[in-house]
Amino acid sequence: MTPAVADIRSICCIGAGYVGGPTMAVIADRCPQLQVTVVDLNAERIAAWNHDDLGRLPVYEPGLDAVVGRARGRNLHFSTAVDDAIAAADMVFLSVNTPTKSRGVGAGQASDLRWIEASARQVAAAASGHTIVVEKSTLPVRTAEAVKAILAAAQGDAGGSKTFSVLSNPEFLAEGTAIADLEAPDRVLIGGEDDQAIEALAAIYGHWVSGERILRTNLWSSELSKLTANAFLAQRISSINSIAALCEATGADVREVARAIGSDSRLGPKFLQAGPGFGGSCFQKDILNLVYLCRHYGLEEVARYWEQVVDLNTWQQQRIARKVVLSLFGTLTGKRLAVLGFAFKADTNDTRESPAIRICRDLLEEGAELAIVDPKVDAGQIAADLGQAPGPLGSTTGLVGVGEGTWAAAASPLEAARGADAVLILTEWQAYRHLDWSALAAVMRRPAWLFDARAVADAAAARAAGLTVWRVGEG
Ligand code: UDX
Ligand code: UDX
Fold it and tell me: Is residue 417 in some structural domain?
């Protein structure tokens, strides 16, 4: 029997990542009567969530420190004792990572579900009584079937002393605005077949989300809605980036075009910012997943339609690197570039699939020296992403790693710009809107360029300081 709504007293979340951590923190904050335990295999990550200094949580999100500060130790706990937390829980969220498979059947497109499967097996073994299992990770459609099959086997082995219901409750939060998105979601989506389980989960959200925003669907619609939402959002970005290229060729300005079309209430103004292409852990992975799914069901034309969204995104990144090379007289050997921003978007320390990775690698391959600065991404992360340790700038020796270029972390935009031939803005950090262009220009080598792939800098000030300015989508 599924517990009645009032019986849910303890919940557990497997996966203390960008999704699991903030989501559980907000649930704990809004539902003080619930005990919420977030578990993870990664002891270092758990230790960071428990760090006394709230400025050193493993995930950077505006407002997260305050939420964790209020709830941690009261009814929010971070732990590595996975089995104990599962055993004590009435409801278990699965929020483990589901990256694209790198080998075997479906490599490069299908999601790697090994961690979901491992978590489901762990829940099957450690649970007691009735447990509602909630899929929080973004998953291919019909994953719930696999989760159910694993849980059903355990149910049979236990002679009915443990029972399970499976729900899908995809997360729509965007990084950088996770807390606001969680506190005031456009909608909460709950998919499932067991009405009592659905209502138990709806009641938790009901503490702060109004009833009409809580949507109930069947399991498969819920799973597919998440993939579809991300595919549509990513498609808008590829669409505007394709038009940005045409604007540059024709003398139009993509921001004027975006404003003009965004004023049509059928289109709306959001997600029309041209840039270096989309990054983040979800968009590419989810579209590739959709493509894989379509092929699996023999829908080749549909698969190719969505695949094009990812292809255009890759092209956009390569196009920007090429633009830099061609502008700097076709060669970057011996030239220094200040790279401003490495995170995949502003207000996050996340670099997964960041456009900066491919663009910087392409520039390194051309022999560039990159001085990279980001307010939230540390040098160790950049080194891991580039597959290359930092090296001394200004030397032609010590050429290591993937390309022939070198890179080093800089402490500030001004330090990065010192001796640089160009500044390249790749993340739309607020601070980059207010750079002092006369100070930057003064320390750069002439002729100096600004390549603004996010169109955030004060282009007039940069031009007044003597820089040649390229902005994405400006003809
Ligand atoms: C992940 C998925 O990438 C995304 O598709 C989904 O929507 C939500 O979960 P995120 O939270 O950003 O997103 O992932 P990540 O930051 O990698 O966190 C996952 C955590 O799960 C990691 O800390 C990892 O150590 C943990 N984990 C993984 C376990 O605790 N147990 C496992 O078996 C596997
Ligand atoms: C996305 C979805 O928005 C969210 O609902 C889902 O749960 C997870 O995936 P996220 O990846 O965190 O969230 O960030 P998002 O704000 O969607 O940005 C994704 C990428 O698109 C970033 O690289 C961003 O810079 C880029 N982007 C976004 C643009 O280039 N232009 C835009 O107009 C909007």
Answer: yes
Nearest Cα residue to 9 out of 27, 36, 30, 45? 36
Candidates 148, 226, 285, 335; catalytic one: 226
Residue 438: inside a domain, yes or no?
Answer: yes
* Strand positions, DSSP E, 273-380: 336-340, 369-373
| Per-residue confidence band for 402, with pLDDT thresholds at 50, 70 and 90 | very low
Domain membership flag for residue 385: yes
Task: Give the closest residue (by CA) to ligand 1 atom 20.
Answer: 15
From the CA of 122, give the closest atom in ligand 1.
33
Ligand 2 centre from 173 Cα, in Å? Answer: 10
345 shares a domain with 196: no
> How many domains are contained in the chain?
2
**Ligand 1: centre distance to CA 78 (Å):** 14
Whether 171 is catalytic:
yes
CATH value at residue 413: 3.40.50.720
> Which of 126, 124, 113, 116 has the alpha carbon at shortest distance from 94?
116
Residue 135 known to be catalytic: no
User: Which residue out of 12, 13, 247, 282 is catalytically annotated?
Assistant: 282
Which ligand neighbours the alpha carbon of 348 most closely? 2
For ligand 2, residues with CB inside 6 Å are: 171-175, 230, 233, 237, 271-273, 275, 278-280, 282-283, 344-345
Question: Where does a domain end: 197, 217, 237?
Answer: 217
Whether 85 and 198 share a structural domain: yes
- Name the one residue in this structure whose structure tokens are 């696999």: 146
Task: Report the range of poorest mean pLDDT among 2-11, 274-283, 464-473.
Answer: 2-11
Angle at the Cα of 24 (from 20 to 30), degrees rounded to 5? 155
Q: Is residue 44 annotated as part of the catalytic site, yes or no?
A: no
- What pTM was estimated for this model as a whole? 0.92
Q: How confident is the model at residue 396 (pLDDT cuts 50, 70, 90)?
A: very low
Residue found under tokens 């890179």? 407
Q: Which of 171, 307, 353, 366 is catalytic?
A: 171
Indicate if the pLDDT at residue 5 is higher than 80: no
Question: Is residue 286 situated within a structural domain?
Answer: no
Nearest to 360 by CA among 441, 451, 447: 451
Of 188, 217, 246, the last residue of a domain is 217
Task: Give the tens place of pLDDT for each residue, 287-345.
Answer: 999 999 999 999 999 999 999 999 999 999 999 999 999 999 999 998 999 999 999 99
Task: With a cut of 70, say whether residue 403 has pLDDT above it.
Answer: no
Provide the residue range defining the domain that includes 448.
313-471
Q: Are residues 79 and 206 in the same domain?
A: yes
